[in-house]
Amino acid sequence: MNNEEFLQFRSTMGRPIPGESLTNDPENPLPFEQAPRFTDVHDASMYLWSEITDPELYVPVMTTLADGTAIMDVAQTILMGEFQRGAWNPDLMMMLVEPLVYMYIALAERLDIDVVIYNEEDADAEAEEKVLGAKYEESKIKEMKAAAQAGKVPEGVITSDMEAEMATLPELTAPQQPSLMAAPEPAPVSATPSLMAAPQEGL
């Protein structure tokens, strides 16, 4: 998923148009209506890691996390997008929420980003238990929050190969803004001759 697709999916959260499935051609099923590409959590997790560390997605997503976007919003967007491309079925998609969140916690810790798990972290627990439209274990949510606050993920989620790859990922650089105390730049000198200048010969 590239940056443009991520932003588009984030705005809609992948919700289909009501009645859209009734117009699908049964002879040409959509990707998520066919057998999924992944059926194993480990293989799917490795695929997710390769996707989220691709510079085209890594840099914009980590920038949004640094700006306060909740990890769960990003995770749901990516998982739903890949589901609609036929990567996995709904059951495996729910199983991938936890490893994907922990991957982002590890990536954020490397950049010293204080992450948010939910936008409504002060809301009641019942509102927080909905993930991808389904009930999610409150205990897992608490573990994710604790990991985010401590900047550590459970052993086994991030492999040694992942740690080595993280060291090669680009750093985030803040856009350079001119100082308000800096002297203003001089206006460019116009090449137009002054009307008060003596006329030039031959013109």
Summarize this structure briefly:
With 203 residues, the protein is mostly helical.
Description:
- By secondary structure, the protein is an all-alpha fold.
- It has one domain (3-166).
- The chain has helices at residues 3-12, 41-52, 55-66, 71-84, 90-95, 97-110, 125-128, 138-150, 160-166; strands spanning 130-131, 134-135.
- Strands 1-2 form a two-stranded antiparallel ribbon.
- A hairpin with a 2-residue loop joins strand 1 (130-131) and strand 2.
- Helix 4 packs across helix 6 (97-110) and helix 6 (97-110) runs parallel beside helix 8.
- The model is unreliable at 122-128 and 175-179 (pLDDT under 50).
Comma- or semicolon-separated keywords:
203 residues; mainly alpha; two-stranded antiparallel ribbon; 9 helices; 2 strands
List the helices and strands and how they pair.
Blueprint: H1 3-12, H2 41-52, H3 55-66, H4 71-84, H5 90-95, H6 97-110, H7 125-128, E1 130-131, E2 134-135, H8 138-150, H9 160-166
Antiparallel strand pairs: 1-2
Helix pairs in contact: 4-6, 6-8
Total strands: 2
Helix and strand element order: HHHHHHHEEHH
Please identify the structural class as seen in this structure: mainly alpha
Oligomer: single chain
Number of domains: 1
Question: What's the Cα radius of gyration?
Answer: 25 Å
